[in-house]
Structures are given as C-alpha cells and as structure tokens.
Amino acid sequence: MTTVPNRAQTLFDLTGRVAIVTGGAGLLGYHHGAILSAAGAHVVLLDLAGANPALRAEQLTLAHGPECLGLAADITSEASLEEARDAILAKFGRIDILINNAANNPKVESHPHAEPKQWSRLENFPLKIWNDDIAVGLTGAFLCSRIFGQEMVKRNAGVILNVASDLGVIAPDQRLYRKEGLPEDQQPVKPVTYSVVKTALIGLTRYLSTYWTAHNIRVNAISPGGVFADQPDEFTSKLHQLIPMGRMAHKDEYQGAILFLCSDASSYMTGQNLIVDGGRSVL
C-alpha cells in the first residue's frame, strides 16, 4: 500500500531544493543548514576557507542523506560569489533558498584589528572595522541576494531569509557589558555596527520582498536573541534578567523558525521579521 504524505509533512518538506547558507560553518549557520538538510534540501555552506565549509558540508551529508556542498567564498566579492554560483549550478542545477547569515560579531573587550583600549566605544571606533562590518553583514547580504536571487527570478520561485537580531529591533543594553572598577569612558560597549547592520537587514528584507514579489520570491527576516556560547557567567546572569523566559537560546532552538520561513509552511508570508528572543523585545 502506498503511503500518502500528510499535509503536515509536505508543508515542511524541502526534498530536492537547494539552499545556500552564508557563514554556514559557524556557530548558528551550521545549525540552520542542518535543519534544512534534515528536511531534504541539498545545503550549500558558504564560508571563509579557514572555517572549513567542505568538511562541515560532508558532516551534513553523512548525518541526513541529501548531498551537501561546502564552498570557500568571500561574500564581499562579486567575483567570488559568481564563482560560487557557477559551482552550485554545475552541481545542482538550481538555487531555491538563500539564508544571509554571515556577519562579524567580535567580543566587546577585544578585536583582532584594533588597539585593545576601549576599541568598541563610539568615540574610538575604527573606521576600518566599521567598513569591514558593513561589508560583511550588509553589503554581503546585498550581493548574495542580487547574484543568487537572479537565479530565483529565472525560475520564478525562491526564498530569501535574512538573519537579523533582536538588536535590530531594540537598542543594546550597554549595562550588560560594564566592567566593575572602570571609569565611564573606558567601559566596553556593544559595537555600533552590530545594531546598524541588523537594523538595515530588516529594511533590505522589506525592500526585496516587494521588489521581487512578482517573481514569486518571498523575502523574510528572523531576529534571534542571545545564544549560549560559553559567555562569562556575569554576562549571562545579567542578560537572563532581561529575558521573560529567563535564559538565552540553545543553538538548535532557532531551527523550527528557520525551517518554517524557508518552507511552504510560510507560503503566504513575505516582508516580515520574525522575532525569536524569549520575549526580551516585548519588555
């Protein structure tokens, strides 16, 4: 007897679709790719060579079955992205889903390209870091959307998901980063570029959602809250007091929302920003 898939199964089924995840070998990118792979998609992890996206893609293939691909790419370079596009089309013949996940998010206390002294404060914030953060988090999303989105236009179908943040919706609470004993002008803060990039991604989402709606391309954003990643106890304790659910998210707790937004389960949803932050932004 033939088993007919029920509606609940087909809504979230991504069998045969090709999904690109930028920053795909990183903390959250890999988990985003994993749920799409588990739903049947061929996942392409784009990341810098040092993150070893090929190995991470192989792990997805072994774990879930559908063949996945890892490519080293610089998302701030049109040439690099065009090379990646050509490799993806040669391998799979199509592009259905793009998750713009890549972003810079350094620790507030230090940065590999800045002097350690209060680098994160607005008064001292290096222009080079401003430009780098905008290039990766915003320009990279724009270029990926343009280059990969054109392949969706050709097929008259596609999904783009921009990973924003609760800090694209609310201002950072700088009290979280304070260090006891330091004068005010030496206190570390959440860098300005993080909020700027994440807020801009929500705007880009709205723009693209109406620009490409005639081509049946849906564009949404997701705004995650904080994620457990071995942060200092002092920081997590203070942050948990600001979250109604009393804790940050575990890395896999965004997978349900990611799958929803990338699948037919959200077929009538576009131009929206889904906030998944344990309730922090409602306070």
UniProtKB/TrEMBL annotation:
GO MF term list: 3-oxoacyl-[acyl-carrier-protein] reductase (NADPH) activity
Keywords for the protein's UniProt record, in alphabetical order: Oxidoreductase
EC number of the protein: 1.1.1.100
Superkingdom of the organism of origin: Bacteria
InterPro entries: NAD(P)-bd_dom_sf, SDR_fam
Presence of the UniProt keyword Oxidoreductase in the record: yes
Family stated for the protein in its record: Belongs to the short-chain dehydrogenases/reductases (SDR) family.
Name of this chain's protein: 3-oxoacyl-(Acyl-carrier-protein) reductase
Organism: Granulicella mallensis (strain ATCC BAA-1857 / DSM 23137 / MP5ACTX8)
Taxonomic placement: Bacteria, Pseudomonadati, Acidobacteriota, Terriglobia, Terriglobales
